[in-house]
Design a protein that fits this description.
- The longest helix is centred in the N-terminal third of the chain and has 23 residues.
- The protein has a domain of 63 residues: Cytochrome Bc1 Complex, Chain D, domain 2, CATH 1.10.760.
- It has five helices and no strands.
- It is elongated and about 60 Å long.
- By secondary structure, the chain is mainly alpha-helical.
Amino acid sequence: MKTTPSMILAALLSAALLPTAALAQADDPLKANGCLNCHDKEKKKVGPSFKDSAAKGVKPDDVVAKMKEGKGHPKLAKPDAELKKAVETALSTK
């Protein structure tokens, strides 16, 4: 198979975009922890919306404890700091 300049350019662009996608996900704790699979900013999905939870005045530490114990939320084996960052991001939704 003959390698053309356009094939090389396409390969380089693909390789350059992969780290960007990974960094974007790492910057968004809601995506990185899978929160958006069951929750939405404004409407109820499987779990309550972030807006409804914030309106109830839910405390981040209480939510993290439920996530770690699997009470009212699927059990997650992630570091507390990572989960707390995701919960705080979700509860900051206005």
